[in-house]
Amino acid sequence: MGDKYNTDKIKLWTRQNKEILNDLEKYGVYRVKEEYIKQKLDTITPFYLKAYKWYAKKASNIVEKPEGAEYPIWLSTTNNMMLQPTKDTVVLELEVDKKHVVITDQEKWGYVINYWYVPLDREDEKVHNKELEKFGISDESELFMTHKGNFYPLLRDKIKKSWDRLFDNNIRLCNLTQGTLWEIKKEWIRNIIYFKE
């Protein structure tokens, strides 16, 4: 049977700096290094690296991290947002064995990256928000970014523990999904979309 019927594969898209093509040509593989994240995120790097390190540790229990991989590569499960031209980037369309991919709910990842509580559902979210109000907390990310967390360790721990729900696909906050890979291999690329300067 052709690829059309192969349910062990998934199509994914990722927007990357066009320099990625040099690594792929030279080594046949691309892996994210911490230095790449620092270059991209500049002054907000520490904020994101904490969440990325947490994610990398948890995701490596689902899909084993290959030697040389430090951080995951983020991919979309649809090409909807990928086709908007962005300077100095390319969009790679990949076809990958599902066993290499960790799929998560996009909205749940948004909660984690913002250091928010990942609710079981909307009702659970309302209950949590009332608890925050009770303690006078208007921005729960402060429990991780400031000394405020020292005063509410149980609440901070509850929030951090809720992040494990990111990997529970029975808990959905939206219908949009995303994927991560530890590496991109040249042979996985089905198409490269270049944008004119």
Give a concise summary.
The model has no long low-confidence stretch (mean pLDDT 89).
Q: Provide the residue-averaged pLDDT.
A: 89
SSE order: EHEHHEEEHHHHHEEE
Q: Structural class of the secondary structure composition?
A: alpha+beta
Structural shape: globular
Q: Which percent range describes the beta-strand content?
A: 15-25%
Q: Counting H and I runs of at least 4 residues, what is the number of helices?
A: 8
Low-confidence stretches: none
Rg calculated over all Cα atoms:
19 Å
Write a structural description.
It comes from Maledivibacter halophilus. This protein has 197 residues and is an alpha+beta fold. It has a domain at 8-115 and 167-192. It contains eight helices and eight strands, in the order βαβααβββαααααβββ. The protein has helices at residues 20-27, 34-41, 45-59, 106-113, 122-134, 142-145, 148-151, 153-162; strands spanning 9-17, 29-30, 73-76, 89-97, 102-105, 177-181, 184-185, 189-194. The strands form three sheets. The chain has a three-stranded antiparallel β-sheet with strand order 1-4-8, with no helix packed on it. Strands 3-6-5 form a three-stranded antiparallel β-sheet. The longest helix has 15 residues, at 45-59. It is globular and about 55 Å long. The chain starts with 8 loop residues before the first strand and ends with a strand.
